[in-house]
Amino acid sequence: MRLLSRVLTAALVVSASLAAFPAHAQYSISKINITGAAPYTDSEILSIAGLQSGQLLTHDSLANAAQHLLDTGVFDDAQISLSGQGKARTVLLELKPTPLAKLLPGSFANFVWSTPEELAAAIHTRVPLYHGAFSDAGNLPDLVQTALQQILADKGITATLSHAIVEPTTQHPQRVVNFTINQPSIRIASINITGAPTALAPALQQMVTRLSGRGYNEGLTGLTTEEALLFPAQNAGYAAARLINIQRTPAPSAHGIGVAYTATLVAGDLYKVAAYTWTPTPVYSAGDFAKDTKLHPGDLASETALRMTEAKILATYHSQGYLDAYFTRSPTFDDATHTVSYALQAVPGDQYHLHTVTPQNLSPIAQQEFDKAWRMKVGDVYNETYISSFLNNNTAMQHLATYSASFQASADPLTHLVDLTITFAPGPR
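^ thats the sequence. predicted structure below, dont judge the formating
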């Protein structure tokens, strides 16, 4: 998963009718006419623009008002002009909001003092232009983070927050703006799940034990606490299982904040697989899928089998440089027959290439051996699996075989280039 930040580029148009607006003239606003604002209301617009009837203004204050709106990142264009005569003028503000379909949903990982609905309402009160989504540029995420800090402070909580754009994964196939409390640490203190079938009790208890003390997550990135708790049921064939009556109660703990989590599991019926299909691509064919799939018609629906198959496909994409690849898994349930069909499709993203490779801490003779044996050159398609293969099979190389190694790959999602650093250390592999 790669984090990505972008630079805002947007158009600001201040009408030519303002070009002759005297720098020191004192005009007032008689009224403000806003067009094209939907889905935002006039009051939400004006809260950011900083304009109001009766206000004295200059040319700069109008330009600044439009720029404040563009700076949020949720408008493609903002044009502002004056009409009327005399000292009291009408401000005309014409807006072109970015379509909601092009915005990124907000994700809130561990704000356990409020329900998601309460948190969204509290943010909107402080940041009126927040409607649950962000541009991949602009200052709206910064405004929301400041609001979150205030919301927590009002509850007596001092916290360190961060936010970042997170790229899609198979588990969460959305590009999102994710907000997280970094400090204090928000960890699971206890879990109590009721309603589970008796046969699921051992597997569910194992999951509860595994999650105890781990970080709490209910956002749109990574494995959420809810998804982890549903896994035993979904892996046993209860493909439509869900949790209801979820309650999370935070309290101070030795490590920060401990969350007592309670919910009721509605397992539903057992489902068998009616179909599991793959949309073939040049990277991964129908034949490849038939060979690698771990789930077949008639099998009990199994989350493990689904993930194992997807992991095999993902490894193939990664070996051909598609580091941002993920899959959409679309289940279709037939409640009458208690069957489920899965349609798997790739979203490959862009292909990455090797930018640099830097081996560290090798002796001159071992460096020569590395240079001679290493096959992935600068400019080549980046092959994620080649590195492990190379390092695990270097026993035939007399001098490299005396080193252990680890590597770090830094992938730039803007240039689609990878900088690879391999750190060697003397000793057994």
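The domain at 3-98 is CATH 3.10.20.310 (Ubiquitin-like (UB roll)).
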